[in-house]
């Protein structure tokens, strides 16, 4: 099972046009918005590939955990 299936990302891309239509986007803007979501995912994946090479995994994990704890509080 891939990470995308485990986190539900495939479902988000499958239903994204329907969700965007339900919030009021019309005239194929729902498909454009879905494309923008895909581009954001592509660029953040590329960012995530190069980030560990530059800073190492441990500092990224510690800072991510700290940010999550603060956000949950």
From TrEMBL:
Subcellular localization(s) per the UniProt record: Membrane
GO cellular component: membrane
Keywords linked to the UniProt accession: Membrane, Transmembrane, Transmembrane helix
An annotated Gene Ontology molecular function: carbohydrate:proton symporter activity
Membrane topology value: Multi-pass membrane protein
PROSITE patterns documented for this protein: MFS
Principal subcellular localization: membrane
Domain Major facilitator superfamily (MFS) profile: start-end pairs: 1-73
InterPro entries: MFS_dom (IPR020846), MFS_sugar_transport-like (IPR005828), MFS_Sugar_Transporters (IPR050360), MFS_trans_sf (IPR036259)
Pfam families per UniProt: Sugar_tr
Bilayer-crossing regions: 31-51
Family per record: Belongs to the major facilitator superfamily. Sugar transporter (TC 2.A.1.1) family.
Protein name: General substrate transporter
Biological source species: Jimgerdemannia flammicorona
């Amino acid at each position: 099972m891939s990470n995308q299936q485990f986190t539900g990302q495939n479902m988000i891309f499958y239903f994204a046009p329907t969700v965007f239509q339900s919030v009021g986007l019309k005239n194929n803007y729902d498909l454009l918005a879905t494309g923008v979501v895909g581009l954001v995912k592509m660029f953040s994946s590329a960012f995530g590939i190069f980030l560990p090479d530059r800073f190492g995994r441990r500092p990224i994990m510690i800072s991510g955990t700290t940010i999550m704890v603060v956000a949950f509080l």
